[in-house]
Amino acid sequence: MHRLVLNEDHYREVLDELVEGAERFLWITTSDVKDVHVEGPGRRYVPFLSVLADLVGRGIEVRLIHAKEPGPAFREDFDRFPALLESDLFERILCPRMHMKAVIADGARAYLGSANLTGAGLGAKAPHRRNFEGGVILEDEASIERLMAELDRLYLGEHCVGCGRREHCPDPIV
Known about the structure:
globular; 7-stranded mixed β-sheet; two-stranded antiparallel ribbon
């Protein structure tokens, strides 16, 4: 089964339901990653990185794969969350060829679509500043298993040896 996600629905469907609903693991892939802020406790906005740190603090494994080095605001916020720096439950990989936008929660539900991990992509900005985005929420086991197998191959560095773009890779896996 799948469900269409358009524009500002990304915030509720991806951030609120998939990310917040993860109980064992969360995998995120994106080409662009920015210092996204999301609604936190008491209607305060907090860095999305704090959400990831909270997940790690609850024992949930988080894997983030992205294509380019994030900007200074992201790096500054990243350093504020020791769980992301010190825990074996958080893994971050930089792959210049990553263009897939996906979020997988517990191997049971996944988002696959156009939205990057940015405020404009995930509907975390004012309506006139958001991108037009589309994607699907997948719940069928076969599609999610196939998506996870591809990401595992990437994570394990199987694509690194014959990549052809190694000179552009700041941190080769293999």
